[in-house]
Amino acid sequence: MLLYGRSSSPAYPITADAVDPCGITDQGGDFMTRLSVDGAKILYSSFTYSLFAPGSGGVFYLYDPLASNGVFYRRTLDDPPFRGVRCVANAASGLQGDFATGMIFTVKGPSIGSFLPATGRGPNNFLAGTEIRVEGRPCSILYTSLNQINAVFPSEVYGSSRLIEMEIFQDRVLVGKVSRFLRYANPAIFTIDGSGRGPAAALNEDGSLNSEDNPAKVGSIIVLYITGAGEPITPERTGTIATEPGGALKWNVEVSFGNFFIGSEAEVLYAGDSPGSVRGLVQLNVKISTELRDRGAVWTRMKIGPLLTSRYDPPVTIWVK
Asked: Does domain 87-183 have CATH number 2.60.40?
């Protein structure tokens, strides 16, 4: 049984072998799903954003961006996936979109990375045979596996509103190219489950994890972690580890808490490097306003310059008492 449609949720179930494993917006997107005969089990499910056009009977046409003029291949769900990049997304939100200087991002696709998973710490321009370059500048590889790579966008590439090309290599072989616009920021908040939705990966003032059983008090300080904040005032080498507070951002950061669309402005006490973590992960120390009336799971909004974080349903939240 084949289903074609559009989901209003970015949490629509996608299988590991999806030809397009990333959503494109915070409102989900078009999908193609194959169910078992009794309709009780998902056998295959994928978004259908830009890389392929669905046909009838499980046939789809896959675009190969490495071909000279672009080629569409006729495929079926029973064909094994061929090697190539399927999507590039902000590592915090999981959404495809534009790049920003220093942003931590995720690349997904069949057989694009190392057969054996590897994790890097510090500048790693070539990790287990995996390499990513933007305008000839290397990205720092944080993690590589067969179907996923996590990396940091180079701090040496900056600017705004211009189209750039990213190249992904494995064992010196080009496995994918991606073209995206470079913006001054593409902000997103890291969450507990890594989906970019629901409870934020936040720390209370005493350093404990913010949770339903351990909420923050109004008037206290809470720590949020974000990426896509754009270039700092004084850029450091891509992928280096921050040893102390610093790395002040070029753009102003605003945070508010409050359910629905009436938020209580919070005071951002610090916005910069997170000591002990890779540069590109930005730490925000935020004081919750004593005027905040909401309790429980409270919506969290962040704005860098005029850019707001994407609004999810459900949104990113912190726990407050």
From this structure: yes
